[in-house]
Automatic annotation (TrEMBL), chain A:
The keyword Protein biosynthesis does not apply. It comes from the Eukaryota. This is Protein DOM34 homolog. Gene3D superfamilies: 3.30.1330.30, eRF1 domain 2, Pelota, domain A. Its cofactor is a divalent metal cation. Residues 1-131 form the eRF1/Pelota-like N-terminal domain.
UniProtKB/TrEMBL annotation, chain B:
InterPro entries: EFTu-like_2, G_TR_CS, GTP-eEF1A_C, HBS1-like_N, P-loop_NTPase, Small_GTP-bd, T_Tr_GTP-bd_dom, TRAFAC_GTPase_members. This is Elongation factor 1-alpha. Residues 172-395 form the Tr-type G domain. It catalyses: GTP + H2O = GDP + phosphate + H(+). It comes from the Eukaryota.
């Protein structure tokens, strides 16, 4: 992303013009634009004309539209962002109040004005998005017999690209081993074909292959052998990009474990996802110690911040970026205020995790927010808990 | 107005086109530059699409205009439109040579589309399968099955009273046992020896195994090869998946389920254990080996079988040759294991210990002939197995069979499944329902312990040859049930769980026999009293500690067949984090 123009007042109001250059930037835009913002971007409208003779014809025209954002829709796979809302500025072809969906395009400027002002999270996001140092993409194939998940990890997202699922008959007695081996071979071939449809062989990106047992190894062997057999030089040249690692299963959430194996860390250290994975596993370790220095869930964390336990000297708040995507301005403000407090008042660390990485999903499971504390706290007296159960509409679950 | 329609369809958001339906204004037609772009673009798109696309120039131009003359996007879009509006058949059509990459809705599109429409999963039984490719139609298994028409479903049955037939047949005692223990404890070797000494395996076969395994430099695994039939298993000298073998003694016919010891293959071990009536726990008595095994899968396996309802364990303390048949060592190990197993909930009266050497056959079928072993006066392993009590069979309950394997049962039987009949009975001609696919099929053949049969009852290990159902509706872990009393499928359920490790709201895999599915523990509902199972009042737990019992809420992405009282195992990161009972 390129920052084209920025005019933000001291009170945080103002607008920014950005130039998205790569698909990843759409993800940033998705996190940046909120309902209520004003967005100006180029659009196509269909216009019907009537000629002098009374016959009508339809035309499409490119125009610049200004809308008040109501809804965002992000397509993970194609990284396309659709932003819809009411038009708030009249043009030659449009009237104020009409509904329109803007599809943000690569290599076309858009201008964003924030109703609620540019808070710290939004400003940091712009900074991060415009950072010219990009972390490299990584491919991951997480497999088990008959199941493979192909995902791509960009700096800020994990995107599941494909799932391959096939029945591989189990071993069954004498002479029937052939069926299993043939099916396994077929599974490898399908997985390989799928992978080749996804990756660009001219690029050099690490390709992680992970599985329990020997599947990943067997798959790599299959890939290299068939590349040699078919004389696929481009594929053979990828040989050094393949990294075989261990995973407990072929499900995507095993990626978490894969990103912590030494072979993989050696290749990926200092990437955002490796850092976030490490952070989450540190947190879980601390939680399992059960010494009161790990808080999770909105209420616990807010209490901990309130009591000054997430400050200088090791206090870290981990928060999922999805919390800032809330449609509700008040909800977003609640979290922005919390991280501002931790960073600016308390002197603690703030880590915003991508909700699409497995580490982020783990955090989501814990309520989207967690904290490592500088001193132990006792959690939840009984009174609060009852309230919690009632607000969850969950009172019946404890009566059995 | 056909153009209008197409344009409308182009928009991802229909509202976009609601604009000003009747507005009229004057403005120029497409500029000359635009027209040239359109012309060039159309040629390019035509090239990519091939001749048979049946797409008009007008349609191409409209799409090009929309996509700012991007030919790739245009092609992708047009193809997706095409495949949307045409019967599925056209998807399979090969779209020619080198251009296949750009042409033919690649499986990617299928996935992508599915994800676009992805919304929080409704908690309904009926749900489309996850976006996948390589669906079973690619698999060789299926070929030929698709030809079977509905008529074939009507397989003639004899309408037998199966339970009466079963009683008439004067059934022998039958039992399944799973062989468990840490990797390399000698499980497969021990079972190979047992089968060899009982003459189930003939000397010629074993000779061949000896020679072949020696050629691979794995001579010490010759006996294990009786069970380890997999190519990878033999090359590596490690069991990967359950092997099933049968043998008969005077009183009982046994089925061995030889489990893999390696931690990576615990899902397979769970599948085996779920079909077992009791367990044989094999322990390597070697110095240091017992100790490291205990920390490893000796313990995990024992806890797993206990959680799956196994009550009786025969403990084979193996490789005693490596410790000179030391009675002290045997006693030491027996005591530790007995203490551990009783703490895990096994009754002491259900445990039996035998010192043995699988490699040589000492105390397996015959008594040990090593003089150093004379201190042991008890029976050999086989005699201990024989003293197992007959199993009670859930004959009267509705039909349930968890599919262990889906395979091609032969030329006549392109689609077969195997598994242990958990409940009910079945006969040729019966209609069955496969869950979670909710597809019906017919039984056209049955094998019980590899012999053709007219019927089968709970407790038997069977193969069902199916008709009238496509292979794509079947996978291992599915449940075959009676159409009138089907098993329910759930995407969320409560379970009472004994924690093996720390549990928080987290991702995990849910295992039930062969069935495994990715899911999440989304809520720790309550901590339970370990003895009474009653809820501990007060705190809603934020962390479940190992050894404690809790009620949790589990969610899975796709519906899985699971009923109340079902025994499940929860695993994460390759570790068993807990085991439990489905509550509802
Ligand atoms: N000395 C001695 N070696 C044995 C004995 N039983 C098995 N072994 C050796 O132990 C090794 C492992 O044997 P397996 O039978 O494959 O062990 P396993 O428990 O089936 O292993 P997994 O299935 O991979 O967990 C082989 O090299 C055997 O020859 C025994 O009684 N004495
Ligand atoms: Mg083995």
């Amino acid at each position: 992303m390129r920052l084209i123009k920025q005019s933000i007042d001291r009170d945080g109001s103002g607008n920014i013009t950005l130039f998205p250059e790569e698909p990843e930037d759409m993800w940033f835009a998705y996190n940046l634009i909120r309902p209520g913002d004003r967005l100006r971007a180029s659009a196509i409208r269909r216009v019907t004309t009537e000629s002098a003779t009374g016959s009508t014809s339809s035309q499409r025209v490119h125009i610049n539209l200004l809308i008040a954002v109501e809804k965002l829709d992000f397509d993970t796979q194609s990284a396309q962002l659709h932003v819809s809302g009411r038009i708030i500025e009249e043009t030659k072809y449009t009237k104020v109040g009409q509904f329109h969906t803007l599809d943000l395009e690569l290599n076309r400027n858009f201008n964003l004005e924030k109703k609620e002002g540019w808070d710290s999270v939004a400003r940091n996001l712009v900074k991060e998005a415009c950072d010219p140092v990009k972390s490299a993409d990584v491919w991951a194939v997480i497999m088990q017999e008959g199941l493979a998940h192909l995902a791509v990890l960009t700096g800020h997202r994990t995107v599941l690209r494909q799932k391959v699922e096939m029945t591989v008959p189990k071993k069954r007695g004498m002479g029937r081993q052939g069926d299993h081996d043939k099916a396994l071979e077929k599974f490898f071939q399908t997985t390989m074909d799928t992978l080749l449809r996804q990756i660009d062989l001219t690029e050099t990106k690490p390709i992680l292959l992970a599985s329990p047992g020997f599947i990943a190894q067997g798959f790599l062997k299959h890939v290299l052998e068939s590349a040699a057999r078919t004389g696929n030089k481009a594929l053979l040249a990828q040989r050094s990009n393949f990294v075989v690692a261990h995973s407990a299963s072929g499900y995507l959430h095993s990626l978490n474990e894969v990103l912590q194996t030494p072979e993989v860390l050696a290749r990926l250290k200092d990437t955002k996802y490796a850092r976030e994975t490490k952070l989450m596993s540190d947190f879980m370790e601390s939680l399992f110690k059960d010494d009161g220095r790990a808080a999770y869930g909105p209420r616990e964390v807010e209490q901990a911040v309130e009591k000054g336990a997430v400050g200088r000297g090791g206090g870290v708040i981990l928060i999922s970026d999805s919390l800032f995507r809330s449609q509700d301005v008040c909800v977003r403000r609640r979290w922005v205020n919390l991280v501002d407090k931790v960073r600016d008042t308390e002197g603690g660390e703030v880590r915003i995790l991508s909700s699409t990485h497995e580490s982020g999903k783990q955090l989501e499971g814990l309520g989207g927010v967690a904290a490592m504390l500088t001193f132990p706290l006792e959690y939840l007296d009984e009174k609060e808990e009852d309230e919690d159960l009632i607000t969850n509409g969950d009172t019946n679950v404890i009566t059995s | 107005m056909s153009r209008h329609k197409l344009v409308k369809a182009l928009d991802l958001d229909e509202e976009l086109d609601d604009f000003n339906g009747g507005a009229e204004s004057d403005y120029d037609e497409v500029s000359a530059g635009d027209r040239e772009q359109l012309r060039l673009g159309t040629i390019k798109v035509r090239e990519m699409l091939g001749d048979e696309s049946g797409i008009t120039n007008q349609e191409i131009e409209d799409s090009l205009w929309h996509y700012y003359y991007d030919a790739d996007k245009t092609v992708t879009y047009l193809l997706s439109q095409m495949s949307n509006s045409q019967p599925k058949k056209s998807k399979k059509k090969k779209t020619g040579d080198g251009k296949a990459k750009a042409i033919g809705p690649s499986p990617d599109d299928v996935v992508r589309k599915a994800q676009n429409t992805k919304k929080p999963a409704p908690k309904a039984v009926e749900q489309s399968a996850p976006p996948t490719i390589g669906d079973k139609s690619i698999n060789g298994i299926v070929q030929g099955v698709s030809e079977i028409t509905i008529e074939d479903t009507k397989v003639k049955g004899k309408n037998l009273d199966v339970l009466a037939e079963f009683k008439k047949s004067k059934p022998r005692n039958a039992a399944n046992f799973v062989v468990i223990g840490h990797v390399d404890a000698g499980k497969s070797t021990l079972m190979g020896r047992l089968l060899y000494d009982l003459k189930v395996v003939d000397p010629k076969t074993l000779d061949r195994y000896r020679k072949e395994s020696e050629r691979l430099g794995k001579g010490s695994f010759a006996l294990a090869w009786v069970l380890d039939q997999g190519t990878e298993e033999r090359n590596r000298g490690i069991t990967i998946d359950i092997a099933m073998n049968k043998f008969e003694t005077e009183k009982t016919s046994f089925t061995i389920l030889d489990a893999p010891g390696h931690r990576d293959f615990i899902p397979n071990m769970i599948a085996g254990a779920s079909q077992a009536d009791f367990a044989v726990l094999v322990i390597d008595a070697g110095t240091g080996n017992f100790e490291s095994g205990l920390k490893g899968q000796t313990k995990e396996h024992a806890l797993l079988v206990r959680s799956m309802g196994v009550q009786r364990v025969v403990i084979a303390i193996n490789k005693l040759d490596t410790v000179q048949w030391s009675q002290d060592r045997f006693d030491e190990i027996s005591q530790q294991i007995a203490a551990f197993l009783t703490s895990a909930g096994f009754l002491a009266k259900n445990l039996a210990f035998v010192p043995c050497v699988g490699l040589t056959g000492d105390n397996i079928v015959r008594k040990a002939d090593d003089p150093k072993a004379s201190w042991y006066t008890g029976p050999p392993l086989v005699s201990i197995l024989e003293s197992s009590e007959p199993v009670t069979r859930a004959l009267e309950k509705p039909l349930r069979l968890t599919v262990d394997d889906v395979f091609r049962g032969g030329v006549q039987n392109p689609l077969s499944v195997s598994g242990r009949l958990e409940a009910g009975s079945i006969q040729i001609g019966d209609t069955i329902l496969v869950m979670p696919a909710k597809e019906a099929g017919a039984i056209k053949g049955i094998e019980v312990d590899s012999e053709p049969s007219e019927w089968a009852v709970a407790g038997q290990n069977i193969i069902l040859h199916l008709a009238g159902i496509d292979a794509k509706y079947l996978k291992s872990g599915d449940v075959i049930c009676a159409p009138l009393a089907p098993i329910q499928c759930v995407t969320s359920f409560k379970a009472k769980v004994l924690a093996f490790e720390h549990i928080t709201p987290m991702h995990c895999e849910i295992h039930k026999g062969r069935l495994h599915a990715p899911g999440r523990i989304t809520q720790l509902i309550a901590q339970l009293d370990k003895a009474s199972g009653a809820m501990i009042k007060g705190k809603k737990p934020r962390l479940i500690k190992p050894g404690s019992v809790a009620r949790v809420l589990v969610e899975v992405d796709n519906p899985i067949p699971l009923e109340q009282g079902g025994r499940i195992i929860l695993r994460a990161g390759g570790v068993t984090i807990g085991a439990g009972l489905v509550e509802r």
